[in-house]
Amino acid sequence: MYRIFSLVVAFVFAIPFSAHAQTLFRPDKGTYYVLAPSGLNIRQSPDANSAKLKSLPYGSAVTVVEMPSWENSYAQDWIVGFWTKVQAGSTVGYAFSPYLSPLPAPGPFPKATEPCYEETNSGIAHLLDNYLKTKLKETSPQVVLNKNQSEEEDYYERIERTYGKLIHVRIENFYEGRNVIVEFPGDLFSGYIFATSFMQHCPELKAIADDPELVHDKAQRIVMVQSDAGSLFEVKPLDAQTIQVTFRSGI
Predict the structure, then answer these.
(1) What is each CA distance from 40 to 35, 58, 83, 108, in whole angstroms?
(2) Mean pLDDT by 10-residue block, N- to C-terminus, for the chain (251 residues)?
(3) The whole model's pTM is what?
(4) Can you tell me whether residue 153 is helix, strand or coil?
(5) What is the three-class DSSP state of 63?
(6) How deeply is 60 buried, as exposed, middle or buried, from its count of CB atoms within 10 A (0-12, 13-18, 19+)?
(7) C-alpha span between 91 and 88 (Å, rounded)
(8) How far apart are CA 46 and CA 190, in angstroms?
(9) Rounded to 5°, angle at Cα 7 from 3 and 8
(10) Rounded-to-integer distance, Cα 151 and Cα 129, Å
């Protein structure tokens, strides 16, 4: 289902778990939102085979009651995270951390009634831009930087915004394209889940989301997740606590 790019090709299953440890984000106490498209299970103990206490629908808010320990790390296919202790109403149990986002869940998006040719061919930056405008509250004046406007084909504009203390946005406008970039607390795995949550309403986009390119370094750690050559989206860590998600549009 997914493609792996590195000097040595290997499946994630063959990679020691420690290869991922540097990139994993442990969610701290606070409110998070469910990004699992079909809902996220709360389990009695930190184990995939543990009894299911409750299923939380996409978009619901849940409280992380304590930062997960490294002993509760878990891999589901190539997605790696933690069994994290959460509370939803009166239910207290464990949920898989990559599907918990500090940002509100994208959507709802109208279900596509025809092929999404515009998004698959021209890009999805507008989806992230609309999300930022409707779901988040800007907390500082935007900064606009213009460069190379002497010739139309050299046009470039960069806009920077801040949402809360930890969410930074950069919009790059070109002559025939646009990048919308958001940086927030997370890792490659939670960043990928966030990015692809914009793509579930359209079968063509979902097919792209379900078949990402996994880029590895020489130590076989995943260092970037992207659509085909990054044409629609790209996810990469900035540091141990911050992820950068880029959506692109253009011709």
Answers:
(1) 8, 7, 12, 17
(2) 40 40 81 96 96 97 96 93 97 97 89 74 86 84 66 78 88 88 95 94 89 91 85 92 92 61
(3) 0.86
(4) helix
(5) strand
(6) middle
(7) 5
(8) 18
(9) 75
(10) 26
